[in-house]
């Protein structure tokens, strides 16, 4: 095989899709569109919302079951890691609404298998990162003071290192997962193309992505302080908004005709 042909295929395998430049206020527009999607597909949104709520509810169960706050930090990061892998069904609902179709549960479930190799590969990637985080969290836990009521000063090393490591992982996962599932679902491309394109899009729109990440963290926080009940609405809302974010940021050669 000629070298040029080999290089061409390699470039096709891990190419980078172009991204648009968006304003820092764009995330608020995505949320507004997401509210419209919920209003247009309330039953499907409720079904997926209930399913999603089982994840944080399980986290809270373990917090109370083991009667310790030490599981909260790794659990919240773990939730942020695995969440994007389960949103494909809701992306399909938003996509169907944009195309003027009536979304159905069966169609949205089938959408999870539009790009099985890429989607499973992405799920495995997130799982590996989650396992790494859990191992790091266990090591960081060794810094926790071996006293009954530790002071803030005694906790400082534990909290500082945990926050730094968790923050680095969250930033990395956010850049990787911001657009990867949506790209693989619509384009059916390989996982490397999707991941590289997602990272590039986040870097290109750093300001808007910081605002978007802040909104996500705030909504996730609201979900937890409501005893996870808020996730029934929050998870569909974030999933729909993430789809609209993808439509706004990742370019296509042929205009889609919707946002």
From TrEMBL:
Segments passing through the bilayer: 43-64, 70-91, 120-144, 156-179, 206-225
Q: Which InterPro entries would you find in this protein's record?
A: DUF2189
* Keyword Cell membrane included in the entry's annotation: no
Annotated keywords: Membrane, Transmembrane, Transmembrane helix
The superkingdom of the source organism is: Bacteria
Keyword Glycoprotein among UniProt keywords: no
**Name this polypeptide is given:** Cytochrome b6
Give the organism the record lists: Pseudoalteromonas gelatinilytica
